[in-house]
Amino acid sequence: MRILVIEDESKVGCFIKRALEEESYAVDLCEDGAKGLEMALATDYDLLVVDLMVPSMSGLDILKRVRRERIRAPVLILSAQSQIDQRVKGLDAGADDYLTKPFAIDELLARVRALLRRGATESPGILQVDDLILTPATRDVTRGGQRIELTLKEYALLEYLMRHTGRVLTRPMISEHVWNQDFDTFTNVIDVYVNYLRNKIDRGRTKKLIHTIRGSGYMLKAD
Amino acid sequence: MPLRVRLTLWYGTALALVLIIFSVVLYAITARNLRDGVDQSLEETATAAVRSLEERGFLPLIDEEELLSQFPELTRIDKFFQIFTPSGTITIRSPNIKQHEVPLSRTALEATFNGRTVFESAKYPNEPQLRVISVPINYRGRLLYIVQVGTSMESIEDTLHRFLILLIVAMPIALAAALAGGWFLAGRALLPVDAITLAAQRIAAGDLSQRLTMSTAPDEIGRLAGTFNNMIGRLDASFRQIRQFTSDASHELRTPLTVMKGETELVLRRPRPLEDYQSVLESNLEEIDRMTHIVDELLFLSRADMGEVKTGSIPVALQSLVEDIQRQATLLGQDRNIEVMLGTVMPAVVQGDELRLRELLLNLVENAVKYSHTGGKVEIALVTDSRHARLSVTDQGIGIAPADQARIFDRFFRTDLARSHTKKGTGLGLAICAWIAESHGGRIDVKSDVGHGSIFTVTLPLAPRPS
Question: pTM score, two decimals?
C-alpha cells in the first residue's frame, strides 16, 4: 500500500512517514502543495494524507483537483482547525476522513487502515485466500492456522497481492504500490521479495498460491 | 405601550380638543348670527310700522282692519305687533297675538320713556321663546306711543338644536375616522422600524453577515438603517479578525503540540536504540522553546493591546544601538555565510525605550538574515533629516509578494514563501515591531521585490535638541 503525505511542517511529516513505514506502508512525503498535487496525479497512490495549510496550494484545493481528475484514492485530511465548518468543508470537498492536530499515532494508523479497507470488498479487517489469512490491524499472517513471520517489505508485498487476488500484477504496479519513490525500478528487488514470500508461504505445501505469469508479472490465487 | 398606540392616542387627543373648540365656537357664532338676524328683522318691521304711523300724523289708531289692509306685511304669521300708550294700555294689536297677553315690561317702559329702543326676550311656559322689540314714538319731545314687534324663536331654536345634534353626532364619527387613519399612518410610518427590529434580531442571533435591505432613501429610517448597517459591518469585521486571530493562534500552538505528541508516541511504540529517544527529546525541547516563544510574544501583544506595557522615555543614541546590533547579527549570519554590514550611519538621538528599540531592530535584522540566501548580504543604515531618524534594514533575500506586503504586520501572518523558506518564526515578530515603532510615535514600512530582497524602514521622531 503506497501512501502520499502532503505536510509542510517537516517534523510532523517525518514522524507520520516513519510511523506509516513501520506499519509496512510505502510512503512519499511532500512539503509543498503544488508539488504534492503533481505527485498525486502522477502516481496511483492507495491513500493521500493531506494537511490543509500547505504552501503554494491549500489542501482543500489539492483535494478538489484530485477529485476532479477522478482519482478515487481515499483522502485523510490533517488540520489544526478543529471547527466543525472546517471539517464539513473538507469532507464536502471529497475527503474521506478528517483528523485534528494534535492526534494520537494509533488513531492515525487505525484511520489509515479503515480507509484502505474501504477500497477492498472483503469482509472488514481480514484478508483471506484459501487457508492464508492476513489481519492488517495486527499484521498477523497465518496459513492453515500456522503463524508466518514476515519482514515489513514481505508483509507489504503480500498485503498488496492479497488485496488484488486473482489479478495479474505487473512489476511496475507492484513497485508503485509497495515501494516509495526512492525505489530503483531497474533492479530485480521485486523478484527477490516474491521469492522470499514463496519460501515462507508456498514451500512444502501442495497448493501453491503465488503464481508467476510469464512475461507480465505475478498473481495470487487459490487454484 | 407601543409607539404606534401612543402616537395614535396623542394624535386623537389633540384632534378631539381642536374639534371641541371648533364646534363650540362654530355653535356660538351661528347662534349669535341667527339671533342678530331675528333682531334685525324685528327692527325693520318696527321701523316700517313707526313710519306708517308718522305718515298718518300720529292719529289715534282705532281701526285694526284699516291698518292691516294698509300694511299687509304686519299680518305675517311669524310676527305680531302691538301699540301701547305711555300709560301701558294697548291701543291696537295684531290678531295673531290673541292667544295670550304679552304685557309691556317695566324695562321696556323705562327705556322707551328715555327715548331708547330695546330688545327683550320673554318666555312663557310650554311655548317657544319670544323676542320682542319696543320702539318709542316721540312727538315734540313727548312719548306718544310705544310700538312693540315680537316674534317666536321657535324656528331658530329648532335650527340650533338640530345643529347641536349634528355636531354631537358628527364629532365622534370624525374623530373615529381620524383615529383609524392615524393608526394606519402610524403603522405605515413604523413599518420600516419593525423590519429593522426583525433584521436586528436575526443579526443578534449570530448571523453577522446579514444586512438591512430597506431603501436607503435619505429620510430618518434610511439614515437609521445606514448607520445600523455600518455598525454591523464594523462588528462583523472585528469578529472576523478575532476569529482569524484565534484560529491562527490555535494553529501555531497546535503544531508544536502535534510534533511533541506524535514523536513521543512513535518512539514509545516499541523498544528503540537510545539515540532515538535522545533525538525525540531534543526535538521536543525545540518545540517547547518554540511554544514558549509564541506564548511570550502573545502575552506581550495582549498586554500591549490593553495598554499595560510601559515604555521608558529617555534619550537613546541610535548610532551605538545600530553598531551593537550589527556585531550581534554578524554572529547570526556566520553559519550561512551571510554578511551583516553597516551602511551610512548618522548620529541620531530619539526619545524612547532602549530595550524595546533594540528588540525592534534585532527582530528586523534577524528576519533579514533568516530570509536571506546563503552567502547573501544584509545592510543596516541610519540616516536623519531635520525631524526624523530613518533606520533601514536591507536584504537580498526571498522578498515579499505585493499582495502580502500589507498583511505581514498582521499577527500570525506568514507568507507562503516565508513558510517554505524556514520553519522557524511565529508570525508575531513584525506585529511586535510595528507596535514598538508606533508606541514611539513612528512607523514601519516595507519595500520588497520577490526574489530580490526587502527593505524595512523604521521612521522615528528625533528627540528635541537640548537648547
Answer: 0.57
